[in-house]
Amino acid sequence: VPALATEPQFAQRLREHLEEEQLLDGRYRLQEVPGGCVALPVLEEKLSQLRLPLEMPCELVRIQDPVPSRAARRQTPAQKLRDELRQLLGESWSEELERDVPRAWQRHGDLVLLSEDSFRAALWEKLGTALWEMVASALGARRLARRGRVLPDGMRSPSVTLLLGQDSWVEHVDNGIRYTFDVTKCMFSPGNITEKLRVASLPCSGEVLVDLYAGIGYFTLPYLVHAAAAFAHACEWNGHAVEALRRNLALNGVQDRCRVHHGDSRQVSSADRPRPPRPCAASPSPPLSFQLELRNVADRVNLGLIPSSEEGWPVACRVLKGTGGVLHIHHNVETLPAPAPPQTPVLRAERGSPEGAGSDGEAQHPTEDSGKETLVARIRPEWQRWAEATAARIRGLLAELHGQPWRTSILHIEAVKSYAPHVHHLVLDLECRPTLP
């Protein structure tokens, strides 16, 4: 490490000078060197800007075994990564490159998943494997991958590139539940942790769940492992997710309490159409038909698809028991930026769990989750209007399906996370019951 060596009586003045010129390398401690002098580490990439002060006798030396400073030992992984990259690149370091260095990432076991805007400058590509080995070392990982845009294939398939390592299967633990999946084939959203915690606390003992968009088991598993659901039907059309789902059911010891339905539950067939409604239960909806071979089985239906699960609403009505049950309907709702009238308190029937926290300065949850503490306490008029419109639509679907009136009750509206600038991922807990004659 380059350093300026001076006599002890000049060390403090020289330190102040180097700090003022932003040349002092704060990652390392001042050290004694042969001859009784004190060496002050300086930034290698700024050596060309170094001007030796005439009033203080000093010379440029190199410290062979630098000792990390206290501040360096307290560094977050993000700070450590930036410092090591700056040292690697020396005079090539620039503000543009610094903006390219990630400040947040996802960790799945020994694999770190970087954001899609990380390390995009041409200079990074020239460094090749050496760059990825340094990044992995700084972040305490053995494997690295980088996200791309979600593919428009209807399955929300990720576009992920493995940068370091051979195997893309990872394991992630949330609330005591183990998830394994191929990070290049399946999505995993840490931002949904609050909803998974809430689901885990719901009173589901003895109930049957139908999860229409099961994925790798994001919500199926909390229902089975923690909420004590008696049985689950997990529906998923993505073959890669189905493979991970089956592994995860076995990994958590609940494979005997779940049946996996691989296919698109929205596809239609001519068999099994609902009976026509009675004259008093008119509905503008077209006749419904389904391919999924489930009917009248569910106490709860989870519809965890965003931006909208609306295509699954008719299926959810069909699988719900004739005595009714609860639908958990996910949707992205736009909130107008204009000042809103006084907000309405949330209707709470089933309480969730507190949001998990990150550690070590590492962003385990997306930054879009900020502001969660205010979203939990109150709902906005747009959210209430969406919930009421959804409840009315579900009532119509159920009346059409069963040929008799049904009632729906809004139990709870949960704000899971927000997307800039004015879109929120909501979950509506909707109780549905047939109206007694």
How would you sum up this structure, described in words?
By secondary structure, the chain is of the alpha/beta class. Helices cover 25% and strands 24% of the residues. The protein contains twelve helices and 19 strands. The protein has helices spanning 11-20, 70-73, 77-89, 95-100, 122-127, 129-138, 193-200, 220-225, 239-251, 313-319, 372-377, 381-402; strands at residues 2-6, 31-33, 37-41, 58-62, 105-108, 111-114, 143-147, 160-164, 169-174, 177-182, 208-211, 231-236, 258-262, 300-303, 325-334, 344-345, 378-379, 406-419, 423-434. The model is unreliable at 268-290 and 343-377 (pLDDT under 50).
Would you kindly provide a brief summary of this structure?
The chain is 25% helix and 24% strand. The protein has 437 residues and is an alpha/beta fold.
Question: In terms of topology, how is this protein built?
Answer:
Blueprint: E1 2-6, H1 11-20, E2 31-33, E3 37-41, E4 58-62, H2 70-73, H3 77-89, H4 95-100, E5 105-108, E6 111-114, H5 122-127, H6 129-138, E7 143-147, E8 160-164, E9 169-174, E10 177-182, H7 193-200, E11 208-211, H8 220-225, E12 231-236, H9 239-251, E13 258-262, E14 300-303, H10 313-319, E15 325-334, E16 344-345, H11 372-377, E17 378-379, H12 381-402, E18 406-419, E19 423-434
Parallel strand pairs: 6-7, 11-12, 11-14, 12-13, 14-15
Antiparallel strand pairs: 1-3, 1-4, 2-3, 5-6, 7-8, 9-10, 15-19, 16-17, 18-19
